[in-house]
């Protein structure tokens, strides 16, 4: 059904290595890692495809990996020669999975990818965009472009993964978060609950074609049910919702009399410093603490706040 | 909005550290908990030690429930090795006497080991040698807690990648829990100069988050100080999930409010 | 009446013998406390130095039993009001109270951060050092040693003396002392002893103690920052550690050597104006070096039952958003920040409180960390909740309250009445 969409066909062909793409780059973040997407890719692969897993940060060898190679203490030449020795005479294409490209020096990245990828060896590698980039120590290497630009340039397909901000049922706006807020969280490395690293997420695919064109598609991936669908941004929600007070006020004045949904949510999240006063079970007690400059007269019966 | 004390759990099953994780022969987990200046995480370290050894949690039940546990320090659920870059054992002993029932002069034993690396200057590849030796000789399951390891790499010549390699090696032997600081001043995702403290700590944190199953963040209230709340504790999924032997573990993502009082007892509330 | 006078007179005498006093009148009193540097007891430890291994673990470990004895008897130590651990006074009663333990628990460190061009923190460091010296002088034997890192003898000569009442009270005392000279000469020894006892029991007017002063009479003193501590600290009371070195390991060795020479004493370490480029060579400022130094000091403190440390740092040189400061803060047990008021606020306060000069304060005092409590997870950060004022006789800390412009209020009420 949805498979008839040309973009979904392309995605499936890419993931099953049927497209002539040697280097698939996956860009992920702390808020939605490539963990689940990597497993979707593995599901789509033709059976018997050898998977060579190059681990720079993974501790537990995944069960799907045909070969698991710890790379964090090896030179790139050593890694490349090890990879080329594996599954030399496999009849089908082989896949080299790299868990993170962030551990390879900028100046070595391009040659590393080139030394591994060939028509029979597809490289699928993740780059974590939140890890701060490191400017090279030596001055003569300062002109090398940053790793992410470089990788995006040499990749034939780019998968960019981000959290899907809308809850599954899509009725209320609860459980969503605005990009602006998210960015402030990113800068503090704060992971809001039930938003990050869920098994449903958004995928932006940039595919370079032979013709030189680059096409961009958006998908929603559900790793629970393993379904892919085209991602559509919700725009028409206003029409379905009954008019609220805010809408009525909008046309009456040029002043902003309303709170935006974001402000509203922020307002609701504020914990007033004294929680005792907020617990309504106690029945509206006044929490009073005597302060230095309070003028408190013991003899005055009307002074006592209790 | 009620503020009844709640049970503190990291998993949907209500557990703090699940038995499955301790029992697993092949799966190794990595949990990170971060703190800031106003919200020191030392009480959480004690909470983890208690839970690993006794299976109880002093935040949830009465503080002496460890005494009724079928486990003891002599017969622990998991052995614990604390590698502290910030404190000596005497710092922890004060709370351990109360929550683990150890002697005030306790100096660590094979089931609850303590390595004080607060002034360690050994090269990074030798740093964990005694810890690794202890792990390899152990016949019982072990869990390692690293207490503020950034104090090592910020004061010694050692790149983050070299340090991560050592952590990987430790992690390949055992489950690890890492506490580290995440003050806003230490984080800048756009810093590129690798000689700065900010770059090193940010690189460490981000790389650590990408290899963790669980991330806990202890932060002060954004609205300022309150007498009846110390801060928030956020339980979030890490970048990787539980697989294979422990694939059924489900993180209980949640944000709690918590209160530490002068006697050192801790209460947790739902937000 | 005559009885009362006698009490005053003779009660004044012991405090006259005590340290802060300008002892030109009574050179004999100054003698014994100056004596020890040349007397054998101080030479003995010097001769022992080669046997002490300065690279060994914390020197405090060598002689733990002796130290414990010392701690039990030292007049400058009392149990913390919340954790009961041995605690010493910072030399400022208000700061002691703010730290919630009624002082700084031994083995703990305090960092005083200061914004702007003012130098209030050095006042606090000096009373901290002076308090230690005063304990020496009061006890009549050396029970405290002060180690000053980065400064020289000059600094030691600037320590304030004990506060001896307002100028009016002082004059009265002087007259009384002169009279007493005659009186004392007339009474016999046993009477003198009784009178002394009376004098000790009575709170001398110069020392404003709260309730606990009864139990710990010599715990804390008030200092007069316009006077100076005489005689100036001798070499057996105060040591100076030079920073003119390529790295901190020499500094640490020097500190450890001094500590091992002063076994069985309370050690107060002063680390003034940490990382001030005028005192610290550039290579010592680099974060891997400076953090390592603070780490070693912290390790030393935490493993010795008889050492405390107070340090200051200027926030104009090293702002709080600087990651280095965040890391330094992580390694200190207690931190306060002095934030002098902006000039507009000072002017406003001067206008509003022109008739109540006592209400004029000098700046905010922020609490960032408290000993023991912060590390066990309590949130103790209090910003803009306290203010301070450095007066002649004490460093005053009070809760901050926003000054209310009563004039303005009056004007508005009169307006209302007109309506």
From TrEMBL, chain A:
<dbReference type="InterPro" id="IPR027417">
    <property type="entry name" value="P-loop_NTPase"/>
</dbReference>
<dbReference type="GO" id="GO:0033588">
    <property type="term" value="C:elongator holoenzyme complex"/>
</dbReference>
<dbReference type="GO" id="GO:0005829">
    <property type="term" value="C:cytosol"/>
</dbReference>
<dbReference type="InterPro" id="IPR019519">
    <property type="entry name" value="Elp5"/>
</dbReference>
<dbReference type="GO" id="GO:0005634">
    <property type="term" value="C:nucleus"/>
</dbReference>
<comment type="pathway">
    <text>tRNA modification; 5-methoxycarbonylmethyl-2-thiouridine-tRNA biosynthesis.</text>
</comment>
<protein>
    <recommendedName>
        <fullName>Elongator complex protein 5</fullName>
    </recommendedName>
</protein>
<keyword id="KW-0963">Cytoplasm</keyword>
<comment type="similarity">
    <text>Belongs to the ELP5 family.</text>
</comment>
<keyword id="KW-0539">Nucleus</keyword>
<dbReference type="GO" id="GO:0000049">
    <property type="term" value="F:tRNA binding"/>
</dbReference>
<keyword id="KW-0819">tRNA processing</keyword>
<dbReference type="Pfam" id="PF10483">
    <property type="entry name" value="Elong_Iki1"/>
</dbReference>
<dbReference type="GO" id="GO:0002098">
    <property type="term" value="P:tRNA wobble uridine modification"/>
</dbReference>
Automatic annotation (TrEMBL), chain B:
<dbReference type="GO" id="GO:0033588">
    <property type="term" value="C:elongator holoenzyme complex"/>
</dbReference>
<dbReference type="GO" id="GO:0002098">
    <property type="term" value="P:tRNA wobble uridine modification"/>
</dbReference>
<protein>
    <submittedName>
        <fullName>BA75_04979T0</fullName>
    </submittedName>
</protein>
<dbReference type="InterPro" id="IPR027417">
    <property type="entry name" value="P-loop_NTPase"/>
</dbReference>
<comment type="pathway">
    <text>tRNA modification; 5-methoxycarbonylmethyl-2-thiouridine-tRNA biosynthesis.</text>
</comment>
<dbReference type="InterPro" id="IPR018627">
    <property type="entry name" value="ELP6"/>
</dbReference>
<comment type="similarity">
    <text>Belongs to the ELP6 family.</text>
</comment>
UniProtKB/TrEMBL annotation, chain C:
<dbReference type="GO" id="GO:0005737">
    <property type="term" value="C:cytoplasm"/>
</dbReference>
<comment type="pathway">
    <text>tRNA modification; 5-methoxycarbonylmethyl-2-thiouridine-tRNA biosynthesis.</text>
</comment>
<feature type="region of interest" description="Disordered">
    <location>
        <begin position="1"/>
        <end position="65"/>
    </location>
</feature>
<dbReference type="GO" id="GO:0008023">
    <property type="term" value="C:transcription elongation factor complex"/>
</dbReference>
<protein>
    <recommendedName>
        <fullName>Elongator complex protein 4</fullName>
    </recommendedName>
</protein>
<comment type="similarity">
    <text>Belongs to the ELP4 family.</text>
</comment>
<keyword id="KW-0819">tRNA processing</keyword>
<dbReference type="InterPro" id="IPR008728">
    <property type="entry name" value="Elongator_complex_protein_4"/>
</dbReference>
<dbReference type="GO" id="GO:0033588">
    <property type="term" value="C:elongator holoenzyme complex"/>
</dbReference>
<keyword id="KW-0539">Nucleus</keyword>
<dbReference type="Pfam" id="PF05625">
    <property type="entry name" value="PAXNEB"/>
</dbReference>
<dbReference type="InterPro" id="IPR027417">
    <property type="entry name" value="P-loop_NTPase"/>
</dbReference>
<keyword id="KW-0963">Cytoplasm</keyword>
<feature type="compositionally biased region" description="Pro residues">
    <location>
        <begin position="34"/>
        <end position="43"/>
    </location>
</feature>
<dbReference type="GO" id="GO:0002098">
    <property type="term" value="P:tRNA wobble uridine modification"/>
</dbReference>
